[in-house]
Amino acid sequence: xxxxxxxIIKVVCIWVWVLLIAxxxxxxxxxxxxxxxxxxxxxRAGPWGLFQPLADGIKLFTKEEIIPTKAQKFxxxxxxxxxxxxxxxxxxxxxxxxxxxxxxxxxxxxxxDVNIGFLYILAIGSMGVYGVILGGWGSTNKYSxxxxxxxTAQMVSYEVPLGLALLAIVFVYGTFSLRDISLAQQxxxxxxxxxxxxxxxxLGFILFxxxxxxEANRVxxxxxxxxxxxxxxxxxxxxxxxxxxxxxxxxxxxxxxxxIIVALYFGSWHMPYIDLGAYLGPISWGVVSFCIFFLKVSFxxxxxxxxxxxxxxxxxxxxxxxxxxxxxxxxxxxxxxxxLFIQLTV
Amino acid sequence: MAKPVVKKExxxxxxxxxxxxxxxxxxxxxxxxxxxxxxxxxxxxTIPTCWQYPEDRTREIxxxxxxxxxxxxxxxxxxxxIACGMCAKICPAKCITIKKAxxxxxxxxxxxxxxxxxxxxxDLLRCIFCGFCEDACPKNALVLGxxxxxxxxxxxxxxLDKRKLLMNYxxxxxxxxxxxxxxxxxxxxxxxxxxxxxxxxxxxxKKAKVAGAKGKKKPVVKKKAAEKAESTEKKEAAxxxx
Lengths: 346, 242
Hints:
The complex is a heterodimer. Chain A has one domain. Helix content of chain A is 66%, strand content 3%. Chain A has helices spanning 2-36, 52-62, 73-89, 117-138, 142-173, 178-183, 197-200, 202-215, 227-230, 240-265, 282-308, 316-345, and strands at 99-102, 105-108, 188-189, 193-194. In chain A, the strands form two sheets. A two-stranded antiparallel sheet of chain A has the order 1-2. Chain A has a two-stranded antiparallel ribbon with strand order 3-4. The longest helix of chain A is centred in the N-terminal third of the chain and has 35 residues, at 2-36. Chain A starts with a helix and ends with a helix. By secondary structure, chain B is mainly alpha-helical. Among the domains of chain B are: 15-57, no CATH class; 69-175, Alpha-Beta Plaits (2-Layer Sandwich), CATH 3.30.70. In chain B, helix 6 (194-214) packs antiparallel against helix 7. Chain B is elongated. Classes of the chains: A mainly alpha, B mainly alpha.
């Protein structure tokens, strides 16, 4: 009974937390974009414009819901749901801290520590494409269909290097569980480097982050919603909260991806060189590990914004070329090198 | 000359693209950090390229900005407008209406010239702020000032009558925002080519006659204008000599 309660509390807490981050991210994105472009950005609602997402939310909620006459109703309604549900559920296997001991009970700060964490992430990640393609197809709009098709092609292509980069990580750590990998990143590597995934898999990290940007449909790979080419892609015909779900799902995806990057390549909740867990009590260490983890996550969230307002969009054939001719051979090479290294050292 | 396009082979590091991305990110970070620091400055004007308008009115306006109209007075406080109607005539939007009146005896302290505008209305809703009227004004009486906030609630308020125009002048004078006097357009004396000049004059005379057939007013105006031009030329010549 207690286990159930704890699980439910964890689910609700992390869900609310991720939603909160996604909400704040909409503000960070707009303010960051503005500052990079030498303007102040939304600064009217509340202190520093922090209530802007709230105003946006109220606007999206209270807007009239319109279903285009020629749209295929069922698909049109299913689109945003199928996009946002996987986005919300993908965080289940990503850790958000070490563990906390409450009343003699050890609670790991992760919704569920399944031993197939990677496969779950890959599976759920590719579910999101259904929402995009269904929304694009159901709108009966040429731009929406184009956006959906582009998104599908891109996601299918970039899933391969993503999976291969993850496979190399599995070679190194010998487990599929994200918690075990996080735990294995404590201490130092070669005597002076923190024992983080990025130092063991530098090429794998680059491959992973590029593929992850493409999976999240972010600039420079935001072809599915390229404003200057196809209006706004798969969500051209959407309005009110359905559009809100799409946009929201995108930001939740960003949080998840940043969480995965931190958990796999940036030492999760570990500080470099210092093992804080040895000095702090069980409860305070839980809180501190949570804070460290989300500090790292927030850096990667900011990186998404930063890159978005730095780079121009790729051309479509360039994206496909990069995916198939650049990333996949590199990913295979990375796997080969990793396997060779492990075979020789172990 | 257009620049010749030089097609450049990319080096390996440029083709890998990652290093170039980092360079670009350094640039955007520079902008971000500069503006982020600027955000913490006191006052409404923080980011140098942005004026937070209703709070921040520190933006400099050009001295020759064309804002709300005003009717100027001379040094003795007399109205300078002579109600010649040049501004109303040249106005492309036809937003100026003037009623002319002759100065009565005893009004010499009020009006500078023998005629004055009994009523002078500018319809701000029609005005396009081209500034032709102030260019046309022979006495430099009608001027477009620096005031740019003239959104009003009713149509009637948007019609500037003479009282409001003079008020605008007073306000501008108190704020020290009077327009600098216009630069005179230098009139270059025509080179001495007597035969051709005569021919041209003849042609002009013909045109004037044709125009005269249509309406009697036009040639009179032209003559007056020509006389004025001549007089100004003479004056300038005299000034130069002096």
